[in-house]
Design a protein that fits this description.
Blueprint: E1 12-13, E2 15-21, H1 27-37, E3 45-51, E4 56-62, H2 65-68, H3 71-75, E5 81-87, E6 102-106, E7 109-119, H4 122-131, H5 142-152, H6 157-167, E8 170-177, E9 182-186, E10 195-199, E11 202-206, E12 218-222, E13 227-232, E14 235-240, E15 249-250, H7 251-257, E16 263-264, E17 267-268, H8 269-283, E18 290-293, H9 299-309, E19 317-319, H10 332-337, E20 343-345, H11 347-350, E21 354-359, H12 366-377, E22 382-387, E23 400-401, H13 409-412, H14 415-422, E24 426-429, H15 432-439, E25 446-447, H16 449-452
Helix pairs in contact: 5-6, 8-9, 8-15
Bound molecules: iron/sulfur cluster.
Iron/sulfur cluster binds near residues 191, 250, 251 and 400.
Amino acid sequence: MSGDGWHEDRPKEECGVIGLFSPGSEASRLAFFSLYALQHRGQESAGIAVSDGSQVHTELGLGLVGQIFDESVLARLPGHMAVGHTRYSTTGGSELRNAQPIQCTSVVGEIAVAHNGNLINSRELRAELIAEGEVFNATTDSEIIARLIVRNLHLGPENAVAATMRRIEGAYAVAVLTPDRLLAFRDPNGIRPLVAGEVGDGWMVASETCAFWPVGGVPRRQVGPGEVVIIDGRGMRFAQAVPSQREARCLFEFIYFARPDSRMYGTSLYRARERMGERLAQEQPADADIVVPVPDSGIPAALGFSRVTGIPYHEAMIKNRYIHRTFIQPDQRMRELGVQMKLAPMIEEIEGRSLVLVDDSIVRATTTRQIVKLLRDCGARSIHVRITAPPIRHPCFYGIDMSSRGELAAAAMTIDEIACHIGADSLGYLTIEGACEAVGQPMSAFCLACFNGNYPVPVPDGLSKDALVPDVGQLSTLGPRAG
Ligand code: SF4
């Protein structure tokens, strides 16, 4: 296994996007603080593109938002309009050329595009565009969206977005900056989230509501499936760019990805996770001395579990919040320490006690196994693992990196076998029904593909995650460059 164990085995959101139109403000500064709030959605690269009404400028970098932007970089970004992006790579590598927003030349001047999600027809589209003479600079499917918008801009920005949406398939929430307006749109199944609202005398969009608070913004509503938001000097308006048959909201946003202080579709993420813990306690009770969360994401569910069972809640591990992906790679011996780089146990809380360990998900089971061993080594008498995500048996093709099917623990083993593999005394998962009821929305409102294999956007036969990445031969180092 490469990496530090913890990072390698967590499901990873692909990206976070924001867009701002704020007359009289330095949009780059607002974008910086908004992006800071979306850092959890991607830690490999970040970027901000701005416009002063006539020209678009973009600054990009590898690393965290706070590592890339400082006063001198923000000073190079004048204007009252901005789009921003935080990225974790699932398709395409973590190179600077894959950072976003992607800046391209068009008939209306430079434009910048920021995308969260994954296209499932990117291979065909890329081949088709290359056959027609298009030259790609990056390895991401996001550049396909940018190229299609550029090709259609002679129709006008709104029609260019609609024409693009008719060609691309999969999951997407996209923010586009032209010299004089901001557009944002969401796929017709509404898989990835996108919220629209106000900031100062202007308007903004963001992947999550938590991006509004640091800049004094007020989220108003989710952008609907297939809808486009147009923001310019005339205000903010919405249009149905392509028809939508249903909404298939990513259930994993509720279980793990989105920040707990965000609200989605009118539901508090923190409260939803508490209710998942309550429901888990009803479905999978356990007898123990204390309920222990895997910090930080397991905390609300552990509180809910404790409330229903009456078993006291105790924190028994402290998470080092300042370990992120960095340019300093751990050495081999540190890699073997795995989860210890991230979690420090409090032996006094653990020794001689039986524990209910509450976590959000099991992907390959590497991390859970390491945590259980850590607790055993600290003298835990018994460990009952309870998980708020139903068993993950199928890969995600819509922008969440959670390994190929062959690596998913629940695809290869029975629940008893996983319990044995991770060294737990018992293992229990929340049901799909239980998770949806805890969120307070019907099952039909969600994408549940990674749990039940029913993909809301049909995935072509034989498509693997690797097939979403273009051949090197499909790339060129020539042509327009991002940023
Ligand atoms: S497959 Fe799972 S992780 Fe992917 S969008 Fe659907 S619910 Fe979310």
